[in-house]
Amino acid sequence: MNRAVIVCIDDEQTILLSLRDQLTRIVDGQYTIELAESAEEAIDLFAELIQEQIEVPLLICDQTMPGMDGVELLSYLHRQYPKTLKILLTGRASLNEVIYAVNHANLYRYITKPWDETDLGLTVREALRRHAQEKQLAEQNQILQQVNLELQQEISDRRQAEAQLAYDALHDGLTGLPNRTQFMKKIELALQVAQANPTSQFAILFIDLDRFKRVNDSLGHIVGDQFLIAIAHRLQLCLRPTDLVARLGGDEFTVLIEPVRDPAEATQIADRILETLRTPFNIQGHTLFSGASIGIAFGSAHYQTAVDLLRDADLAMYQAKETGRACYALFNQQLHIQSLKLLQIESDLRQAISQHEFVLNYQPIVNLITGNLLGFEALVRWQHPRHGLISPSDFIPVAEETGLIIALGEWVLQQACHQLKRWHRTFPNHAALTMSVNLSGKQLRDPGFIDRLDRVLAATQLQGCDLRLELTESMLIEHVEAILKTLNEIRAREIQLSIDDFGIGYSSLNYLLRFPINTLKIDRTFVDRMTVDTENFEIVRAIATLAHSIKMNVIAEGIETLQQVTQLKGLGCELGQGYFFSAPISEQSVEQLLATDQSQFSASLAKS
Predict the structure, then answer these.
(1) Which residues contact 255 (CB under 8 A, 6 or more apart)?
(2) Is residue 113 within 8 Å of residue 91, measured between CB atoms?
(3) At what angle do helices 180-196 and 117-170 cross, to 10 degrees?
(4) Which of 14, 129, 382, 550 is most buried, by the most CB atoms less than 10 A from its CB?
């Protein structure tokens, strides 16, 4: 590493050599001493040293030199090398020259000729110490400046990160729309305005895309995400500048319409949204369509929280779905009351299963030709401890929606099979009786259903041929391959399969031939109108003819009159059930019926 250099300048060589010798003793070899006999030589020396990156902490220069004198040289060098300290040697410099040198050359000190070596030593050592201090201070300042720059950058980066976090906390990551958090804050602000000004009104639109899951399932989530982004863009185009659209998550969007002077403003925007979504989308070469179900709730001063308002818009949206999709529905208080009722039913239903509040009634199934009792259909009833008997139409849909139907259905199946086996043992003359049990779509699609069925048959020791499971037409059109496999496994156990309420759903000869069905059950609506409606009579005839042509039995339900029995027999319908024979009855009533050897059914049919 090159040592730092002290430069001495004087046009008299003897003085230079003497100065060098004294400085060598003073600095004790810590610095190199370089000499120059003129200003020009000094300038060239400085340029060479600086080019070689050799530090020059101190310059000692004589005042009187030919050409450029000492003050002029020091002034010039100061402009080029301001960090070098300067000492002026002078024998006759005036005060003005010294002042000029101090002002223009940043003169550190001047020493008069001839000088004292001790004084020179003190001056040089002090100058070198000062230069070292200034150098250290400069380095520290440079470090501090760098630290300050890094700190400022860190602060800037942190502010940007905080701003991004704040933005992300209020916006949907996929579409860039406001998210649930921001939307709820906007509703709260709108409610505050409405509470301060009761005449102020706004509206919330809750939008759920229809059949969006099919896009994800068939084309993947990448296409699905692009589809959502395109939908978000179209929704924004439907709104006024004061309105706000947000994405709650999944395929759910919400719109804040503010202000609303007339309810028609909200419905017009809903119509506009439905219309724009009808136009097909082109996403990565795929032509996609999307409808929407929209619920509308109007905000006003009577609402206390944003949650309540969004809940009501959500309830209205579900009402739109039930109405038929691709439409909107307005919230009314009855929807809220119904929602609370369903919530209470769900809560009570969970307890009812564990507390054994359900009972089974049994409706007889009769041979219309002979009048013989062939079996029963098991029908579940809920004996609520506070509300009494609750209709299946009130709790079965809730059980389906919540998944409780699986546990309830297994209980019904086990109870019905157990009861039939007990009647077989108690009444040997009726050992051929069968039991029909309704099956839900969720049970049929449950991967564990066959195992549960086997456990029930093993526990009750009932033969598979004594059991009939009743399905609905709608259950057969979804997840066809999986359902077909399950139905074949059921038939492998010799269990009969029946389609309930046949004729009111998706009647198709194709699925009748494909699925292993044994029996068609004619819906009560057709039976009830046979006597007054020729069209319904012909429908029953067609169903019976179709069933017989593919070797199926026919059961007519809802029989209430002898005339209906006569007509059904004439159409070749073998089996029937209904209030003409018996309403659904309790276990004890069934046992009384079996004890009478079903003579009442034979008597009922004798006149026909």
Answers:
(1) 204, 205, 207, 235, 239, 243, 244, 245, 246, 269, 273
(2) yes
(3) 70
(4) 382
Burial 259-268, CB ≥16 within 10 A → b, else e: bbeeeebbbe
Residue with tokens 């009750």: 460
The tokens of 442 are what?
Answer: 């969720």
Rounded distance, CA 496 to CA 162, Å?
66
Rounded-to-integer distance, Cα 11 and Cα 360, Å: 128
- Sequence-separated (6 or more) residues with CB below 8 Å from residue 408: 353, 358, 380, 399
- pLDDT tens digits for range 224-278: 999 999 999 999 999 999 999 999 989 999 999 998 888 899 999 999 999 999 8
Query: DSSP letter at 530?
Result: T
Burial class (CB in 10 A: 0-12, 13-18, 19+), 69: middle
Q: Could you give the C-alpha distances from 276 to 228, 279, 289, in angstroms and in order?
A: 14, 6, 11
pTM of the model: 0.58
Q: Which residues contact 101 (CB under 8 A, 6 or more apart)?
A: 70, 71, 74, 75, 86, 88, 93, 107, 110
C-alpha to C-alpha distances, 526 to 291, 392, 530, nearest whole angstrom: 34, 22, 6
Paired strand residues for 491: none
Angle between helices 599-606 and 562-570 (to 10 degrees): 80
d(Cα 538, Cα 571) in Å, to the nearest integer?
A: 10
How far from chain centre, in Å, is Cα 202? 27
Q: Is 68 exposed, middle or buried (0-12, 13-18, 19+ CB in 10 A)?
A: middle
